[in-house]
């Protein structure tokens, strides 16, 4: 598949996902449910965002010079947090406490790359007010935590979270499909932290080097994964 084929595949997945999500949102409302997501509501953007590499390639090609600089400026902190972490949980906690939100959040708490944001960002539909999207559950009193959990409708949310389950499941299936196509073309699946993947593409032109079958590039990626296990996942296809 050529570069334009990749672009179209990712863009079609995003369009289909948005259409399905809108329908699901309306269906949920008709059944008496509430979704609290709205513009300029950025608590979810303080969470670590992971995505598929094909999506990162498309977003990387759409970045403005300022966004490009913001990505590069975030890389040293990510590297430092990953190197200092002893496991994924400590990485996520330190990221949440020190990274200060996605670099694409603008001064009005809006996503400055909204049209090209990855599926994992599109997939969060909150059945609770935004304050719950920023809560650090480890700091809650056990009774408060229990009250929150009991209030969730386990039939519709991805329990124990308060996000609708269906969009999360659909996003995971679409990401897998994008990863599989990429692996069929290039012999490797790559996913990981959104900003780290953007940095890889901007600094190291991975998609271009894979496309021209540069010798040693997959081994290099596997080494990168060993060095940055909480930022990058690489699987070589058989
Ligand atoms: S997921 Fe939460 S923080 Fe994000 S837009 Fe929805 S309500 Fe707001
Ligand atoms: S890419 Fe946009 S929607 Fe996703 S975390 Fe960043 S600011 Fe939020």
Mean pLDDT: 93
- Succession of helices and strands: HEHHHHHHEHHHE
What share of residues are in beta strands?
5-15%
Whole-number radius of gyration?
A: 18 Å
Major β-sheet profile:
3 strands, antiparallel
SS class: mainly alpha
Q: Given the structure, what is the number of helices?
A: 10
Number of strands: 3
Oligomer status? single chain
Helix content: 55-70%
The order of strands across the largest sheet is 1-2-3
Low-confidence stretches: none
Observed structural traits:
single chain; mainly alpha; binds iron/sulfur cluster; 3 strands
3D structure, described in words:
- This protein has 238 residues and is mainly alpha-helical.
- The protein has one domain.
- It is 56% helix and 6% strand.
- It contains ten helices and three strands; from the N terminus they run H-E-H-H-H-H-H-H-E-H-H-H-E.
- The protein has a three-stranded antiparallel beta sheet.
- The longest helix has 28 residues.
- The chain is globular, with a radius of gyration of 18 Å.
- The model has no long low-confidence stretch (mean pLDDT 93).
- One iron/sulfur cluster (SF4) binds next to loops.
Question: Could you give a short description of this structure?
Answer:
The chain has 238 residues and is mainly alpha-helical. The protein has ten helices and three strands, in the order αβααααααβαααβ. Bound molecules: iron/sulfur cluster (2 copies).
């Amino acid at each position: 598949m050529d570069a334009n084929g990749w672009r179209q595949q990712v863009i079609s997945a995003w369009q289909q996902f948005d259409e399905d999500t809108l329908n699901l949102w309306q269906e949920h409302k008709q059944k008496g449910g509430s979704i609290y997501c709205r513009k300029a509501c950025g608590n979810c953007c303080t969470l670590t965002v992971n995505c598929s590499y094909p999506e990162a390639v498309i977003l990387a090609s759409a970045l403005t010079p300022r966004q490009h600089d913001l990505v590069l400026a975030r890389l040293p902190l990510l590297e430092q947090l990953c190197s200092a972490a002893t496991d994924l949980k400590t990485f996520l906690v330190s990221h949440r406490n020190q990274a200060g939100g996605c670099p694409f959040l603008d001064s009005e708490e809006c996503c400055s790359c909204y049209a090209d944001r990855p599926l994992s960002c599109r997939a969060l539909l909150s059945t609770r007010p935004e304050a719950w999207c920023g809560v650090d559950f480890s700091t809650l009193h056990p009774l408060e935590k229990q009250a929150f959990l009991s209030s969730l409708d386990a039939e519709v949310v991805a329990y124990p979270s308060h996000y609708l389950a269906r969009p999360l499941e659909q996003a995971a299936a679409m990401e897998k499909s994008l990863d599989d196509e990429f692996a069929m073309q290039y012999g490797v699946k790559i996913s990981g932290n959104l900003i780290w993947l953007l940095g890889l593409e901007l600094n190291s032109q991975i998609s271009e080097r894979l496309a021209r079958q540069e010798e040693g590039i997959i081994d290099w990626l596997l080494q990168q994964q060993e060095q940055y296990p909480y930022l990058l996942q690489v699987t070589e296809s058989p």
